[in-house]
Write a structure and sequence with these properties.
heterodimer; A: 281 residues; mainly alpha; B: 278 residues; 15 helices; 71% helix; globular
């Protein structure tokens, strides 16, 4: 009977996950281009990938993005959770406000921020000018374009992680804090030795999801900057999309997708290892 | 503390307020320096324009249909298999579940291209022969979006976690009284699972409504475009019309916002649930 219940799921799972994963591996060794028949070309795609400067640029871009995005995401969402943890006047309103941006899509968020970051008529530069700062042309200048994407994606995602952290904080037993207080621990010490260790599974969950998402950044880069200026915000998925679906170099795009997946896997494993080692201490 | 809290809230909320203000102010005021916060008059001209410049109503309907079908299939298949993995015993159950769970870690980018290949070569569909050659398969149909996401690992995992938390006595009693397994599932456990189904429904709807890359790849027919595709195409115009653009962005957020406000309680619970048990 159990088999009957899981049949639809398993069927869909085989067709749209198992077969594609196996095919991804096979297609990366072919010159599949939709139109003609696909021939086996051995390691050609991977050789091409090593020589493809844009591929390396995109990898550098997503790594730069991830290095900023992931720690900031954890730091900000955890801080927000700590800030909005205690029930006091207006806390529900604060939480809702913090969560609101996560309801938007990557496209809608990027669209709105194009307007906010407009160098002449956007309010970001308007507010900066009140402090005597002349804001840059955020989306068109070299280091600022990627920083803007980091900011917009943070704005959009910290709310969801805040809620996850709030749930985690609920699980910290009060008596731990009380006994720490009796032992004369200050706020930082009780965070470092109680809150942070208890939240480790939550941090692991949040950071894993952030790694998987960050290395596959696409929507916001596509809408906000279209990869520019000078490819400085072009992400690997963007490059894969262009090679596969604009240039119809599906085999090659697939090799890149496979390479990126391995990078994601490596980073997830490092993250897992880091979390394990910490828990020994 | 209060000052920081309020500052954080302003950063989070101001983009919404500012796009709303932009969308309802007269055209000539949008590009006026110094920037004025309060519009001199309110107009819905930009909303009318948004629907005229691109077939926004059609896109809206397409997105709604896709998101709704996603919810329907995920709730049905997710609860069926979630229930089986939680409450029924069969050989290989735990191994199968572990494989499904592991699949949650597979990045979307690796299955993106082969999924396109699979959908193009589904036999007997879209002019294909039995070997899957000749036609376009399911590409450019809504099935190309619905089927790959019809029973996500997440839905199965989420429903299983919920059914595990329900007592098994009900099942045993019903069995003694001679009820069939399908009846037990449908008449006893599904009514109990309403909060979980609501949460999963919201998640699935949001994911479907907000998805961009999938429709971008699978749907080339202009009549099948979704609201996210329409919105992105909007920003591609060399001469960006910010009034209608902000109107469009807000329209694209409204359904999720309404859903959130109606079911806020479930929403927050659901996120907390997946976060701590994940």
């Amino acid at each position: 009977m159990g088999y009957l219940f899981i049949t639809p799921t398993i069927l869909l799972f085989i067709i749209f996950t198992i077969i594609p994963v196996i095919m991804a591996f096979y297609l990366s060794f072919t010159n599949y281009d939709i139109v003609s028949k696909n021939d086996f070309v051995g390691l050609d795609n991977y050789k091409r990938l090593v020589e493809d400067n844009i591929f390396w640029t995109t990898l550098k871009n997503v790594l730069f993005y991830s290095v900023l995005y992931i720690p900031l995401n954890i730091a900000i969402s955890l801080s927000m959770a700590l800030l909005f943890m205690r029930s006091r006047f207006g806390v529900k309103l604060f939480r809702t406000a913090g969560y609101l941006p996560t309801l938007t899509s990557g496209v809608a968020a990027a669209t709105v921020w194009i307007w906010l970051l407009n160098p002449e008529f956007g309010i970001v530069n308007d507010i900066l000018s009140k402090f005597g700062i002349t804001g840059p042309s955020w989306l068109a200048e070299m280091p600022y374009a990627m920083l803007s994407i980091v900011f917009v994606t943070l704005w959009q995602s910290v709310g969801a992680n805040m809620i996850i952290y709030l749930a985690g904080l609920n699980g910290v037993p009060d008596h731990l804090y009380e006994s720490a207080k009796l032992d004369g621990a200050n706020a930082w010490q009780s965070f470092r030795y109680i809150t942070w260790p208890v939240l480790r599974p939550t941090t692991f969950f949040v950071s894993t999801m952030a790694i998987i998402g960050a290395l596959q950044l696409f929507d916001q880069a596509f809408v906000l900057t279209k990869g520019g200026p000078a490819n400085s915000t072009k992400t690997t998925v963007y490059h894969i999309y262009q090679q596969g679906f604009n240039q119809l170099q599906m085999g090659y795009a697939d090799a890149m997708a496979f390479a990126l997946s391995i990078i994601i896997l490596v980073f997830s494993l490092i993250n897992m290892r880091l979390n394990k080692e910490e828990s020994v201490i | 503390m209060y000052i920081i809290s309020i500052a954080v809230c302003i950063v989070m909320v101001v983009p919404f307020v500012w796009s709303l203000i932009t969308s309802i102010r007269p055209d000539e005021e949008i590009f006026m320096l110094p920037i004025q916060w309060i519009p001199s008059s309110i107009t819905f001209e930009h909303y009318r324009k948004a629907f005229e410049l691109v077939p926004f109503a059609l896109y809206f309907w397409n997105s709604f249909y896709l998101a709704f079908m996603g919810v329907l299939f995920n709730l049905l298949f997710g609860s069926l298999s979630g229930y089986a993995f939680a409450k029924l015993h069969f050989r290989g159950r735990d191994t199968l579940f572990k494989i499904l769970l592991a699949a949650m870690m597979i990045p979307g980018v690796v299955t993106m291209i082969p999924q396109f290949f699979v959908l193009k070569h589904i036999p007997f569909m879209g002019g294909n022969d039995w070997l899957g050659g000749g036609g376009n398969g399911l590409l450019n149909t809504f099935w190309a979006i619905i089927l790959p996401g019809a029973s996500g690992s997440f839905a199965v995992f989420f429903m299983r976690q919920f059914f595990v938390s329900l007592p098994s006595d009900l099942q045993e009693v019903a069995r003694i009284e001679g009820s069939g397994e399908l009846r037990i599932f449908w008449n006893i456990y599904i009514p109990l699972a309403k909060p979980a189904l609501a949460t999963l429904g919201i998640f699935t709807f949001q994911a479907g409504w907000n998805s961009f890359l999938g429709p971008l790849i699978m749907l080339n027919d202009p009549a099948k475009k979704t609201i996210q595709l329409g919105l992105a195409a909007f920003t591609y115009n060399k001469q960006v019309d910010f009034g209608p653009l902000m109107a469009g962005a807000l329209i694209a957020v409204v359904p999720i916002l309404i859903l959130f406000l109606l079911l806020q309680k479930y929403f927050v619970q659901g996120i907390a649930f997946t976060g701590t048990k994940g």
